Amino acid sequence: MSLLRQIYKLLRWELTLEWRDKYAIGSVLLYVVATVVIVYLALLQGLNADTFNALYWIILFFGATVAAGRSFLREGGRRHLYYYTLADPLALLFSKLLYNLLVIWLISGLTFVLLQLFADQVSIPAPLPLFLATLLGGIGLSAILTFVSALAARAGGNGTLMAVLSFPLVIPLLKLLVDSGTYAMDLGIDDPSRPIFLILAVDLLAIAVAIVLFPFIWRD
């Protein structure tokens, strides 16, 4: 079976399991809605552009961490042996990465809609950098968090290890995402292309590292 066909079948299996369960995606979406509402109620003077930009990326990061953190938790015991014998490690990696990417984009879309609903006074003069940062940032977050989730799962499924490993790795990416959002809201960044290209570079580096190292981790 070709690699692309394996990726398709594994991704389809992930989506089928999530559709049957609905617990994980439901908890993530509840987290997004509750966070936006609580912050809105706490800020009596409303959301300004600075708060909008910071809150958007905070919710997206922690929502992505929760969603990606469980990527390999189900792949223990007999299921790990099944994948070990039948599936290519890269097929498994990319199926998880694509699934997490879809979830992250869903979180980002829901977060943006809710923030716009509660902060309609905040304008976004240049939405394109924010849109590109969301698309490319989702790829980077998915690649980093999926790979770290695999490391944590092979180390016994320790959630603390997931948090400790992922946080320093995503700091440069989050800085670039915040810069892109800052330009989109006309808050003082002069060149929007620089952070976008750097985000793309981080994405390619994260994917390359995952491709090289994941087969050794999974076969260990």
UniProtKB/TrEMBL annotation:
The chain crosses the membrane at residues 21-42, 54-73, 97-118, 130-153, 160-178, 198-218. Keywords: Membrane, Transmembrane, Transmembrane helix. The keyword Transmembrane helix applies. It is a multi-pass membrane protein. It is found in: Membrane. Coiled coil: none annotated. InterPro entries: Cyt_c_biogenesis_CcmB. The keyword Transmembrane applies. It holds the Pfam family CcmB. It comes from the Bacteria. Belongs to the CcmB/CycW/HelB family. This is ABC transporter permease. It comes from Neolewinella maritima.
